[in-house]
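Hi everyone,

Forwarding the result from last night's run.
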Amino acid sequence: MSEAQIAHRRLIQSLYRRSLRTAQDWYIDTNLFRHKAVELRIQFDANKNVRHPRQIASIVKETERQLVELRHPDPYLYPTAPGGTKFERNIHPDIAVCSQ
């Protein structure tokens, strides 16, 4: 597999993951999210066999545009992630301070 193919595969995987994360921001209920995830997979599989570089570029550009357009104004953050409600709540003390 060539470098270009690997880079293209990573780009598509990244688009798919970002699409799933965006859907998860909008659909909190697991059943609703799962239904949307299946729809997203069908959309990605529909374009799986496209081989023309211009068509691929336009599909990627349209997907990027949709991701920006559908971005949630208040995305879900894991509690322990930076910006989450528990981030740095219980910070471990510095070892240098404890040894004195």
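The chain has four helices and no strands.

Cheers,
N.
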